Amino acid sequence: MSAMTRRIVLARFCDGPPVAEDFRIEDAPMPEPREGQFLVRNILISVDPGTRARLSGKPSYIPPLKLGATVGAFSIGEIIESRHPDFAPGEIVSLADGWAEHVIGDPRGFVRRITDRRLPLAAWLGVLGVSGMTAWFGLHRVASLKAGETVVVTSAAGAVGSAAGQLARIHGCTVIGVAGGQAKCDWMTEVAHFDAAIDYKATADLPAAIAAAAPKGIDVLFDNVGNAMIDQVIPLMRQNGRIVVSGQVDAYNSDESAVEGIRNTRAFITHRLMMQGLVVFDDLPNWGAAEAAMADHMVSGELVGRWEVLPGGLEATPDAFAGLFRGENTGRRLVRLAPDPDDFPKDAS
Amino acid sequence: MSAMTRRIVLARFCDGPPVAEDFRIEDAPMPEPREGQFLVRNILISVDPGTRARLSGKPSYIPPLKLGATVGAFSIGEIIESRHPDFAPGEIVSLADGWAEHVIGDPRGFVRRITDRRLPLAAWLGVLGVSGMTAWFGLHRVASLKAGETVVVTSAAGAVGSAAGQLARIHGCTVIGVAGGQAKCDWMTEVAHFDAAIDYKATADLPAAIAAAAPKGIDVLFDNVGNAMIDQVIPLMRQNGRIVVSGQVDAYNSDESAVEGIRNTRAFITHRLMMQGLVVFDDLPNWGAAEAAMADHMVSGELVGRWEVLPGGLEATPDAFAGLFRGENTGRRLVRLAPDPDDFPKDAS
User: Fold this and answer.
1) What distance in Å separates the CA atoms of residue B135 and residue A187, rounded to the nearest whole number?
2) Model's pTM, two decimal places?
């Protein structure tokens, strides 16, 4: 008797925006945990634009996925079988093992135990997951954010940016968000309570618009877009300004050689600027404290998440992913594979 | 009875490389110190390529010099009259008040007292002056240099670069210097004892040459050149690499819009890179300890300076400055206005 499960694999390499046909759903034997591992039944899986960089078959900043391999992704699920003494069946974990109904968890890799029952499970793949942690450690470790500073966040209605802007506001900073479209700007000012929101699509002179919203200049640029954006904001930065290189949306779909450069580097000397990137897994030993603080802010209502949970199960995942590149999503997009456990609040989505 | 002195002023704005005719020597009344100031007779004055940025009459990263104004510069001199209780006639100071035979010292501005009699006075305008301090704080404060790391220094036979490379070597690092010309490379390996010296003028593929000299990759890039250089070195950098933006020789003589950009910024995320500029006067409260440590290294012979002292007095200064842009100088160039005091070792130059 060999149980079966299902997973999604890369069927062909992507060239341009991904489409559902780039992937294939297939049956597979149920994975078997070894000593020190456990078997997880996924409840929610995440579709993330960053995955695109692995789908072209070409070397990139992360190794390319091979044809026929399971597509990697974050998920949350329930342990249904354990060969690890500290993890028991029934426990809820988030992990990063891919678009599959069942995955193997191994605490030597990435596994977070979810014990806080105050928030919907989906929150732990959004604000309380990698996106929110990137915002937290970008602001607090990389930029050493101080109360009273002025912060510009780009792609500010996205998963990382929306968390960064709110965390900066909670820290006592003036927050200016930049994003494309009126709906995103309305969300930033009305729901996330940023001090200003700028629709770059409706703004002829973006630096002038940012300067008008930041008359004292900018202390921290939390950038998710790329070089051209950074280059435009540098002349607005105050002495000892910090630039957090969080993401490069501009570059994910484009040829490296077509990317613009940062030219305004003389200001690094005259204005003592600092620019630094981060990979949030470096901060894993410190996630616990950040998760706890951010969960408190969510419970109190000060910090709101932007996510949506799509129905349809594993079959719906490839098109849910392709939809990111059609601009369909509002915040982080998740796909539901199974109902939430009874002891978590139900998701509003 | 009004004593007279002489100074050099800007006679016309520079367009392209400066020439002696851009300046004019003129008589002026002896400046009179106010309460809290003192009068200094200059002994050595410095000519520095960075001065060029102030001579075009156009706004730059520092305010432009007006026509008829005394040209700013570092100098060393003897106090000959004091209205400050802590500074007495006969004391030797370095200050930053310009190409003039007599200048006013004011400790509320930049004044360093020189009491260490173990080294020639000229050392305090070179390795122990702004150049050496920039090297020290760039490596130790900005880059947090650790023993065993690999450091690339550009413009590495220049005033700042030659100090940075030697300080990194003294700190136990592997040092690769990049400069133009065989003579500079010979100096780097034979006198400064860098581990490798690369003549960019004789190297078709500079990144490949650096990579060959740094098989483990680069931890710190101490850059004095500019964006195009930084962009070439970024792909060679190790995780957690630091880029010190010390100077931008490439940009001093060129139009800002013609400067190339830094395109390889994705590595800031994947390799957790950090880039930061510095203005060494921010570190003034900590110069004393750095000066003392570096003077010890010079006395022991571990750290050598690169400077030359030209004769000819104030009249010789404009052409000495113009000569920098004809590539004449070896290291920092100084002009002698008066003999060194007897209690300082004589300069070998």
Assistant:
1) 48
2) 0.91
